[in-house]
Predict the 3D structure of the following.
Amino acid sequence: MLFNSLEFVIFFLLFFLFYYWTLNEKTRQQNIFLLLASYFFYAWVDWKILPLLIISTLIFYGLGLAVFQTENPYKKRLYSTLGIILGVAALIYFKYMNFFIDSFRALFESIGLQTNWHTFKLIVPVGISFYTFRLLSYIIDIQRGKYEPEKDLIAFAAYVAFFPCILSGPIDRPNTFIPQLKAKRKFDSALAVDGLRQILWGAFKKMVVADNMAPIVNQIFDSQDTMPANRLLLGAIFYTFQMYGDFSGYTDMATGIAKLLGFRVTKNFNFPLFAQNISDFWRRWHISLTSWLTDYIFMPLNIRWRDWGKWGMILAIIVNFVICGLWHGANWTFVLWGFYHGLLFIPVILSGAMFKKSKMITNQWGLPVPKVFGRMLLTFSLVTLGLIIFRADTVSQALGYITRLFSVSLFSTNIGEYDVGRIKVVLSLVMILVLLCVEWFGKDKEHALSDVGIRQRWVRYLFYYFILFCILVYKGAEHQFIYFQF
């Protein structure tokens, strides 16, 4: 049930009317209804994976109470460690067991031993990476004394299964989200209008930008062996915009839907296309995951290896990003992608720019000065190069793509023909330009359409209608959100 599908529109309208019309300010009843709707939404994907979500919720609810209530330090650590082991074990079993089986099969067959593991495949539960990280942060924060366990099982379960965020985040922390579940909620027209604007922009990024890029990107990556380098470059750039439009578009829609229900979820994107170095990029991209990894992986490792100075920090950041890569899936390409991003931090750390925020210096026309633009272009290029690895099915395929990319055909002026049509390629370039312009002039706001800066109401609404027109007329074929697979 995609956010941009008719099924979801019908589901949400029925839910929304009952949520506010009948249950307005009835917090307990709203939470029960929200939980049931979230389970229905999750079961719509595949009802067989719903029991795992429910069982995980009950286990961590009980462990949270046990960690908090026991005064024995040994038992407290035992319960929290058990929770961490169970969470990590669930991820390893469902997300990585196929990876281990395929790796061992390839190893055995490389030395002439035949196996019968080809047909053994596990189904990866949708959203397991996201809700498991919520559960892990819950139990770790209780063990650290940062958060008291939630005694209201309904509120806790609704936090874990909150349907706008269950499939692809953001990864909200319990101390910011659960208090909102326990507060009275009535319809807030200003928040709802802002939510609708954010949904509109998210739909544009997903349906117009990402979905139109998808067939072009698929064609180029699937035929990379026969493509000239200039076409491979176009495919890599388009994939970066497809990934950004798809994931940030989902996040905008999820955030907007949450606002319609009276919730503010964690901001997950802060205009990362305008980042000036790799550290700045990760402060802007998938913020909830970055902050989670920083708090629970990087900082403990950095403290442990602090005697090694900057090289200890470098080692901690590389381990952090390898884990980040593994979080995305069980493939050596994700490991290599994470290692690559860890390496990109080395000059940033050695120069002392790791924790410095980059200033956005502009000229009198509001455009970045050449020095800033150069940094942005370099960062974009490095991220795009990494996404080639991220997109590839195998490491050899990724390295082959990159090798062919840096060839003399890169400078050819002939971009050739496309199965999807040259007009669609040109249209996609125009939509990228629209995306960049709108986000640039909205970069200092909460989201691109939160304040478009147009005083005349009729002009502002004309702009909204233009975005809606693009969605209705130029939307691409429906594609599943990329991050649903993670």
Summary: The mean pLDDT is 89. The chain has 17 helices and no strands.
